[in-house]
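Deliverable D4.2, example record:
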Amino acid sequence: MAILTARNLTKSYPGEERPALDHASLEIEPGEFLAIVGPSGSGKSTLLHLLGGVDRPTSGSVQLYDTDIYELDETHLAIFRRRQVGLIYQFYNLMPNLTVTENITLPAELDGKKIPQDDLERMLNDLGLMRKKDALPSQLSGGQQQRVAIGRALINQPAIVLADEPTGNLDQRNSQEIMDLLHKANITAGQTVVVITHDQNIAQQADRVITIEDGRLVEGR
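Output generated by the structure prediction step:
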């Protein structure tokens, strides 16, 4: 049974001749590592935001487990997204005035949960950030900041992790380290992962690849 099912997702913007996303449908299985590839402007990020409940479609539906996420009001959608969806962005989106530890635990704090110290230390060690746990984002390299973003996405053990060009700002070595961390979460914890990328080398590391062209999905391998 699919963990996430999208049906006929369409997103149109006023003044645009064609929709950014055009009747896109897909199913994602539990524990799958999926890559979605396509050129700039093809609709990759639009699709990701709709799958994660960040934006609402013009038409169509997204079902995560047994919940049609767009039947939720804004308050319940925000809670559902925080608990069930881990989002990783190209530009990290860290809180500049919070430490590494505080950035990672922020989703749990917003949910009124306390992360056990052993679990937090295990996460920091897995991310290679134990020595940087009290540092601010401005004191970190790009690769380290993206590691923090991954920790933040995983801390609530969400149903699915959605990564939007997570290696787009990184060199080859750091890019592979980020992919290795995502693969570890996928294999060790059974985490379902979807990566948006324009990099075919990154995409080929996934279990399945889907191409998006002019807002339409084309099944790859």
